[in-house]
Amino acid sequence: MKKLSHVIRLMLVAAAASLPVILFAADTFDNPVGLNANGVAIDTVPKFLIALVQGALVLLTPLIVVFFVYAGFLFVTAQGNEAKLEKAKRTVFWSVIGALLIVGAIVLSAAICHTIVQLGSTTNSCII
Fold it and tell me: How far apart are CA 124 and CA 113, in angstroms?
């Protein structure tokens, strides 16, 4: 078990060490609050909500995938041990809850954005 936790820690350290390489791979770094990915200024609440949700998706989607992979790894290494199987089931359960929270946040922000547009905002779209 100690070897498994050591391997997982090593994988997390390697992922964290490679993060600057991934972040600065582009030629320029855009300000996420000033402009969105298309170069459009974020000057209204709906545009800000769209940018916020898109940024959260970029950060949280890989994290959910990592937790599902970790849960699968726990299932494979459990080898019939009830305690390890229970831990793997809990990990899957909470990974699903996290994924549902992310989807719920997207739905809620889309509803808020469409409400703001209907109330008379100058932005005519809420594409997330």
Answer: 10
Model-level pTM greater than 0.70?
no
Strand partners, 35: 41
Q: Burial letters for 1-38: b for 16+ Cβ neighbours within 10 Å, e otherwise?
A: eeeeeeeeeeeeeeeeeeeeeeeeeeeeeeeeeeebee
Task: Please tell me the distance from the alpha carbon of residue 54 to that of residue 51, in angstroms, as a whole number.
Answer: 5
Helix and strand numbers, DSSP H then E, in the chain: 3, 0
Count of Cβ atoms closer than 10 Å to residue 71 Cβ: 20
As a residue count, the chain comes to 128
pLDDT in tens, 33-86: 566 556 667 777 777 777 778 888 888 889 999 999 999 999 999 988 999 999
CA 118, distance to chain mean position in Å, is: 29
User: What is the H or E stretch that residue 36 is in?
Assistant: none
